[in-house]
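Appendix C: a fully annotated inverse folding record. The material below is reproduced so that readers can follow the format used throughout the book. The structure is listed first as C-alpha cells, followed by the designed sequence.
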C-alpha cells in the first residue's frame, strides 16, 4: 500500500515536470519567433528609411545642382574689360575685311569731292525715326554732361554751333523722305485757277506717273515749318492739303503768295530736270508701302536752336493778287526742299523702312535725286544703323563668305555706299563700334566684345533692336560732326 502510494506520487511529480518542461520549450520558441518577426520588421523599416534617405539625398542633390545652374545663368556677371584688352582686341581679334561692293547703277552723280566754299550755311538732316530721335528720352550723361533727350541733329548743332534742322519722320520710307527733300518730282494733273480765297482740287502725279499723296506737304517733318504755306507751285507759295479720292486742295497762301521765295516760275513736267527713263526704270513708286520700322517712341526733344534765317519772309506791304492760272504738269515743290535743300549742307539717312523695292541701285538713285535736284555740293550720306543679322536687309549678314564674322569691315551695302559717295559716306555702324562707348564715357564689357566680333553695336547705346538711346544718338551725331570737319564743312 505504502509502496503503491509512493510510486503514484513519483509518477505525478514526473508528469508535472514534463508539462513544465514542454511549456518552457513552447514559451522559448514563441519568444524566439517573435524576436525574428520583430527583427525582420525592424530590418524592413531600416531598409525603407535608408532607401528614402538615399532617394531624398539624390533628389536634393539634383535639385540643388539645377538651382545652382539656374543661379549661375542668372547671375553670371558681365565683366568690365580693361582698356589695354580692348586695344588688343581691335588690333588682333576683330575682322577688318571689307565685303565686295554691290554693283552701282548708271548715274549722273559721281563721288567727286568739291572743297567747301566757306559760305555760312545751315544744316538740314533728313531721315526717319533714327533722325527724329525715337528712344532718346531716357536719362543719360556723357562724360558728366546731361544729354537726356538728345538726338543726332541736336548733337551736331551742339558741336558745330550751326542751326541744324531735324527733318526726321518716324516710319517714313526712302521714297517719302526723298519727296520731302525734293528728290521726287510731283506735278498737278490738270489746269487750275486759285487765289487766296479760291481753292482748286487736283491730283499730284509723281515721276512714275502714279498718284502721290503725303502726310506732310511742307517737308519739314519733325521740325517746325517756320512760316505759313506748304508747297511752291509755279513760283507761288500755296497751302496744299489732302482731300477725298486721293486729291489735294490747293490755294494761295494768304499774304505770301505774290512773294516768291527762290522757286523758279513755270517748272513743269516738260522742262523740269529729273531722272531719265533709264535711271528710273523699275523705281519703287508705291508710297503706301507699310513701313518695317516699329514706331516705339516719339522724340521728346525740345528745339533749342535759334532761327538764324527766315526762309520765306512776309513782305512789309502785303501785295494784292487776284486769281492765278497754273497749267497742267506744273511741278509742286515742298517748302522744305525749296527753303532748305537748295541752300543748306544736307545730311541724308534713308532706307531703313523700305521704299526702294529691295533694289539697292534704286536706293542710290533716290539719294542721287535729292542731291541733284537740290543742286547741292555739300552733303553727308549716313550709313545704316541696324546690326548685321538683325537687319531686314539680306545684304547685311554678320558673316563673310569664308564664314568669319564681318566685324568692322564694310558690308556689301556699306561698301557700295562708300564707292558711290566716296568721302561723303559716313559708316555709322563701324564708327559706333569703335568709338561709341568712349564718346559717352561708358566702359566696354565682355558682352560688347562679343557683339563687336559679329559687327554689332553695343547694346549700351540702344533703346531697342533698331533705335538708339540718347547715348547712341549723341555718339552718332559726334561722328557725323567729325566727318563734317574732315570734309571742311565746319571746324
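Designed amino acids, in order:
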Amino acid at each position: 500500500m505504502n509502496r503503491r502510494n509512493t510510486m503514484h506520487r513519483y509518477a505525478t511529480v514526473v508528469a508535472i515536470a514534463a508539462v513544465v518542461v514542454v511549456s518552457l520549450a513552447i514559451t522559448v520558441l514563441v519568444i524566439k519567433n517573435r524576436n525574428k518577426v520583430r527583427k525582420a520588421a525592424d530590418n524592413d523599416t531600416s531598409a525603407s528609411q535608408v532607401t528614402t534617405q538615399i532617394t531624398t539625398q539624390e533628389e536634393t542633390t539634383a535639385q540643388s545642382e539645377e538651382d545652382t545652374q539656374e543661379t549661375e545663368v542668372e547671375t553670371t556677371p558681365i565683366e568690365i574689360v580693361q582698356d589695354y584688352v580692348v586695344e588688343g582686341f581691335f588690333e588682333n581679334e576683330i575682322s577688318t575685311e571689307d565685303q565686295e561692293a554691290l554693283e552701282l547703277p548708271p548715274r549722273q552723280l559721281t563721288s567727286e569731292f568739291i572743297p567747301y566754299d566757306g559760305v555760312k550755311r545751315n544744316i538740314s538732316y533728313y531721315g526717319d525715326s533714327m533722325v527724329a530721335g525715337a528712344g532718346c528720352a531716357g536719362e543719360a550723361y556723357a562724360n558728366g554732361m546731361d544729354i537726356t533727350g538728345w538726338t543726332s541733329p541736336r548733337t551736331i548743332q551742339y558741336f558745330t554751333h550751326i542751326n541744324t534742322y531735324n527733318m526726321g519722320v518716324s516710319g517714313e520710307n526712302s521714297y517719302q523722305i526723298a519727296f520731302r527733300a525734293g528728290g521726287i518730282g510731283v506735278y498737278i494733273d490738270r489746269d487750275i485757277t486759285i487765289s487766296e480765297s479760291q481753292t482748286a482740287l487736283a491730283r499730284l502725279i509723281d515721276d512714275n506717273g502714279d498718284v502721290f499723296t503725303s502726310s506732310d506737304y511742307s517737308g519739314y517733318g519733325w521740325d517746325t515749318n517756320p512760316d505759313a504755306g506748304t508747297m511752291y507751285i509755279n513760283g507761288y507759295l500755296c497751302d496744299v492739303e489732302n482731300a477725298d479720292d486721293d486729291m489735294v486742295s490747293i490755294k494761295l497762301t494768304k499774304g505770301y503768295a505774290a512773294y516768291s521765295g527762290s522757286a523758279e516760275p513755270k517748272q513743269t513736267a516738260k522742262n523740269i530736270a529729273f531722272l531719265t527713263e533709264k535711271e528710273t526704270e523699275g523705281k519703287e513708286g508705291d508710297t503706301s508701302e507699310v513701313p518695317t520700322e516699329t514706331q516705339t517712341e516719339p522724340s521728346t526733344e525740345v528745339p533749342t536752336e535759334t532761327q538764324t534765317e527766315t526762309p520765306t519772309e512776309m513782305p512789309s506791304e502785303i501785295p494784292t493778287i487776284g486769281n492765278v492760272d497754273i497749267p497742267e504738269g506744273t511741278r509742286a515743290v515742298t517748302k522744305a526742299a525749296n527753303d532748305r535743300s537748295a541752300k543748306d549742307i544736307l545730311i541724308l539717312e534713308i532706307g531703313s523702312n523700305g521704299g526702294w523695292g529691295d533694289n539697292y541701285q534704286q536706293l542710290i538713285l533716290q539719294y542721287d535725286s535729292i542731291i541733284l535736284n537740290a543742286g547741292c555740293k555739300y552733303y553727308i550720306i549716313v550709313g545704316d544703323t541696324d546690326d548685321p543679322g538683325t537687319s531686314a536687309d539680306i545684304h547685311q549678314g554678320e558673316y563673310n563668305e569664308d564664314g568669319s564674322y564681318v566685324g568692322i569691315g564694310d558690308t556689301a551695302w556699306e561698301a557700295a555706299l562708300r564707292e558711290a559717295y566716296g568721302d561723303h559716306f559716313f559708316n555709322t555702324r563701324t564708327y559706333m563700334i569703335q568709338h561709341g562707348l568712349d564718346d559717352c564715357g561708358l566702359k566696354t564689357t565682355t558682352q560688347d566684345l562679343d557683339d563687336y566680333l559679329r559687327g554689332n553695336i553695343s547694346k549700351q547705346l540702344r533703346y531697342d533692336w533698331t533705335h538708339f538711346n540718347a547715348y547712341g544718338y549723341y555718339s552718332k551725331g559726334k561722328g557725323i560732326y567729325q566727318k563734317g570737319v574732315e570734309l571742311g564743312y565746319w571746324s
